[in-house]
Each structure stands twice: as C-alpha cells, then as structure tokens.
C-alpha cells in the first residue's frame, strides 16, 4: 500500500506544479485552489508512504516523479522546448528513480 500512496503522491505533485503555473502567480482562483488541494493531498500521501518506506527512498521517488512528470506536462501542454540536454536530464532522473526502487 505504501508504494501506491507514494505513486499517487508523485502524481499529485505533478498536478500541483501544473496548477501553480496555471495560477499565474496566484492571480487565478481556480488553479490556485487546485494547487492547494493537490499539495495537501500529495504531502498527506507522502507521509503515509513514509510510515513503512525509508525517508530517502520516499522523498527521492516523490520528487523524481514530480520533476519528470512536470517536464513531460510542460512539453505536452505548455509547448516547452525539447532539447537533447533536457531529455538526457529527465532520463537520468528516471534512471535514478528506478535504481532507488530496486535498491
């Protein structure tokens, strides 16, 4: 169950990061509220996963999911540029997540 909580927390980190961008500096109410709700839920699920998973593993995977997920969302939904360096960086983060899971 802890891994499910951690994956859900990582997904919600992507949601709140995207909503933060869409809030335009907290000037738009709906994205700001979505961000706050997703943030609270993400932290709550992360804390539940930490009941049985190590701190380093939980936090690294949570931030990695958020970082790579926000990178992908930025490309797909916001038209951010894709460069070889950015792709390599995202792949390295993903490789770190997989390696941490296997450790």
From TrEMBL:
<keyword id="KW-0472">Membrane</keyword>
<keyword id="KW-1133">Transmembrane helix</keyword>
<keyword id="KW-0812">Transmembrane</keyword>
<dbReference type="InterPro" id="IPR000390">
    <property type="entry name" value="Small_drug/metabolite_transptr"/>
</dbReference>
<feature type="transmembrane region" description="Helical">
    <location>
        <begin position="59"/>
        <end position="78"/>
    </location>
</feature>
<keyword id="KW-0813">Transport</keyword>
<protein>
    <recommendedName>
        <fullName>Guanidinium exporter</fullName>
    </recommendedName>
</protein>
<dbReference type="InterPro" id="IPR045324">
    <property type="entry name" value="Small_multidrug_res"/>
</dbReference>
<feature type="transmembrane region" description="Helical">
    <location>
        <begin position="84"/>
        <end position="102"/>
    </location>
</feature>
<comment type="similarity">
    <text>Belongs to the drug/metabolite transporter (DMT) superfamily. Small multidrug resistance (SMR) (TC 2.A.7.1) family. Gdx/SugE subfamily.</text>
</comment>
<dbReference type="InterPro" id="IPR037185">
    <property type="entry name" value="EmrE-like"/>
</dbReference>
<dbReference type="Pfam" id="PF00893">
    <property type="entry name" value="Multi_Drug_Res"/>
</dbReference>
<feature type="transmembrane region" description="Helical">
    <location>
        <begin position="33"/>
        <end position="50"/>
    </location>
</feature>
<keyword id="KW-1003">Cell membrane</keyword>
């Amino acid at each position: 169950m802890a891994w499910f909580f951690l994956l859900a927390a990582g997904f919600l980190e992507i949601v709140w990061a995207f909503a933060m961008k869409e809030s335009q500096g907290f000037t738009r109410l709906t994205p700001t509220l979505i961000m706050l709700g997703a943030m609270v839920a993400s932290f709550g699920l992360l804390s539940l996963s930490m009941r049985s998973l190590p701190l380093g593993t939980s936090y690294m995977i949570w931030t990695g999911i958020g970082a790579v997920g926000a990178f992908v969302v930025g490309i797909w939904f916001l038209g951010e540029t894709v460069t070889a360096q950015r792709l390599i960086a995202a792949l390295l983060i993903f490789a770190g997540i997989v390696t941490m899971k296997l450790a």
